Amino acid sequence: MKKFFYKHKIKLSILTLLLVWYALCLPDRLFDVPYSTVIESRDGRLLDAHIAKDEQWRFPAVDSVPYRYKQCVLQFEDAYFYDHPGFNPVAIGKALADNISAGKVVRGGSTITQQVIRISRKKDRNYYEKLIELIWATRLELRLSKEEILELYASHAPYGGNVVGLDMAAWRYFGRKSHELSWAESATLAVLPNAPGLVYPGKRERLLKEKRDQVLLKLQEENIISPMDYELAISEQVPIQDFRLPQLAPHLLQRANKEYGTQKLRTSIDYEMQETVNRIVKNHHNLLQQNGVNNLAMLVLDVETQTVAAYVGNAPTSREHSKDVDIITAPRSTGSVLKPFLYAAMLDEGELLPESLVKDTPTVIDGFSTENYDKRYTGAIPASQALSRSLNVPAVRLLREHTVPKFYNKLQDLKLTHINRGASTYGLSLIIGGGESSLWDMSRAYLGMAKTLELYTKNSSQYDPEVMNRLSYLDDNSAFAKAEKETSQKHVNWSLEPSIYGTGSIYHTFEAMKKVNRPEGEEIWHFFNPDREIAWKTGTSFGNRDAWAIGVTPKYIIGVWTGNADGEGRADMTGIDSAAPVLFDLFNRLPTQNWFAPPYDDLIQVPTCKQSGYLATPLCESISQNIPSVGEKFASCPFHKSINLDPTKTYQVNADCEPASQIVTTSWFTLPPVMSYYYARSNPAYKALPDYREDCVPATEEVMRFIQPKHNTTITLTKNVEGEQNSAIFEIAHKDSDAQVFWYMDEEFLGTTKNFHELAITGKKGKRLITAVDEEGNDVRIYVVFD
Fold first, then answer.
1. What pLDDT is attached to residue 201?
2. Pick from 435, 374, 372: which is nearest to 407 by CA?
3. 3-state DSSP: the chain helix, strand, coil percent, rounded to 5?
4. Which of 263-267, 527-531, 741-745 shows the lowest per-residue confidence on average (mean pLDDT)?
5. How many CB atoms lie within 10 A of CB 301?
6. What pLDDT sits at residue 528?
7. Do 177 and 228 meet the contact criterion of CB atoms below 8 Å apart?
8. Are strands 37-40 and 264-266 parallel, antiparallel or unpaired?
9. How far apart are CA 733 and CA 772, in angstroms?
């Protein structure tokens, strides 16, 4: 052996080098080309795709070759594909003889394996290149199975123009998936790669049909198709025009490409739902743009699967109006859509009951002033109504009581990622639009609440601690979704402690949101469709720049945003008028479904005061109510007091002026003076405390008085050099230097002062009543005449 190796060392060395070269000649990645990003619906239908970076329409490699196409391409290109080692000597010999005889290339002898090599190398065709293709082809046969080689061919063969690969060709020429093609359509695509520049649909139909029919005839001769199938197939017309790819979710496609790269992704999108939402968005955009509102986004989430059912990132507007911007992921001012989260948080902490009265009066807190949208005040209003009517003043007061840091931390639990600058940065304005969030994050937060409620009733009153980490736009069965799901659920255990809110608090929050007044045309829904229930909330940002509407049903979360991407506001654009009609356009198309079941294990039945909503006391009329279990630590009713009346029940008395036997002791519902002032105006049945009888009035001292002007003073209305009316200065003195004073002209609220009680008032001609009221209900009044 030593002698043999020594004698033939040069030959053996060359042979070894050749074997090493042969083993390494084939690149690890045969096709180093860019692909298109493709997204499909959850049932596999094409939603959208974009062209590859090299301007070729090249879908990612197929994972299987359709049977019909396989039979067609084998009969046309390589009938002995499963028998040869990568090249066919007989075919090569015949081709060589025919070409020499003709004096030019009239026939090719390449196998499908060799064509895969040729397509991947993109070299000029000559005999040297043919030799390389032959060698590489045999090496490819050793690396891959026949089926894998056929998949490479189908994925990278040229089909005319900039169309590459079977899947893309099927969509371009026939408007459907390659597995759905007929025998005639499959045969058409089988012949195209052979001469994609010569045979092109729409240009040389006759030649294309001849080549196709030759393939079909061979299929019949080989008994692959029946004579009837053959006759039907050759009667089909060849494609004469290109089909446009579906463009149902361009912004989701853009997002998928950014997050997952060039892949074919099976998404969770419901194809019919996506089509419906696209139509709704288009129709409403046509209406909104008449008011200068150019952008609209809509997101639909499936509660059961915690996936995206429909995704429309923007209206079909123009490039000038930022049509390519995905509004769903863009941070926008939240308006009032955070209010349900505060309501739920305070219920969850036992700081509020669903119907407990909250203060609704003109408010200035540490220099921060707010007012209700309609500039009206109720004095006191049940918390659920304050939420359903989206009143700003009660929300700000409740946030102050709950504290901004606690609420800010809760918003972090809800994954509102754009609210991230610290609690002190936002202050009390956070609850009325001082922060920003995206439609994606906002809808996910409501999804988390709905899913928590659903799972609690299904899983023995337990909570999923990872409920806020489940939202995806990928189908549950896709490889990416499975990987993400396995990662997120790796250490998940059911818990008895809520991860965001207790279900009792969530249930009552949704119940309050069901009472929100519906938009025009939906006002009497409960008479005709009492079972079509939805919990929903609108929001309008400062300056009418953003309009929101978010709806919750046991099956879907529907999120809508309308506005202008550049932040330009529109006076008439509000959540109720602009966004809500879009939401209800979809909601009214959804099937009726049962509402959330009450989570009785997280509710407790207690007597509450009928008038105040607080825990009942012996002094108030009570009703039985299911409240969140932590609500039993809430306060008892502070508004019912025991008072002493004279025998006629007309005046208040005391033992100093009325015999004890004549005193009638009764319970009386009474609010603090400022609350009472507004409450009486909106609640005619409210009765203020009776006055003390003249002989029973307790001694009091003067708390405040007017310094200027004096009672019945006449003030002349004058104008400055710019033609604007001058104001008159009104001043009072108050015993308590820290008191807060509320000013009114007739019944119009003018403003609030603290410490220094001076107010510039621009008068209206005529006799006017000027009233100043402090927080304890002490008031002073004067009449002045503006002339």
1. 54
2. 435
3. 40, 20, 40
4. 527-531
5. 27
6. 42
7. no
8. parallel
9. 11
Condensed to tens digits (0 to 9), the pLDDT of residues 511-522 reads: 999 988 766 555
Residue pLDDT, tens place only, 572-596: 899 999 999 999 999 999 988 899 9
Kindly write down the DSSP assignment for every residue of 477-541, as one continuous string. TSHHHHHHHHHHTTT---BSS-SS--HHHHHHHHHHHTTSPPPTT-TTHHHH-TT---EEEEEE-
Asked whether the beta carbons of 21 and 13 are under 8 A apart, the reply is no
**Are 383 and 613 contacting, i.e. CB atoms less than 8 angstroms apart?**
yes
- Distance in angstroms (rounded) separating the CA atoms of residues 394 and 372: 9
Q: How many Å apart are CA 551 and CA 760, to the nearest integer?
A: 45
pLDDT at 488: 47
Structure tokens at 625: 């109510």
Q: Pairing mode, if any, of strands 535-540 and 546-552? A: antiparallel
| CA–CA gap between residue 654 and residue 642 (Å, rounded) | 12
Return the higher-pLDDT residue of 134 and 585.
585
The pLDDT value recorded for residue 525 is: 45
Q: At CA 460, angle to CA 454 and CA 462, rounded to 5?
A: 70
Please give the torsion angle defined by the CA atoms of residues 523, 527, 531 and 536, in that order, rounded to the nearest 10 degrees: 10
| pLDDT at 479 > cutoff 70 | no
> Which parts of 354-450 are beta strand (E)?
357-360, 363-365, 368-370, 379-382, 436-437
H/E stretch holding 660: none
How far from chain centre, in Å, is Cα 737? 50
Contact 694, 657 (CB under 8 A): no
Residue at 453: amino acid letter: L
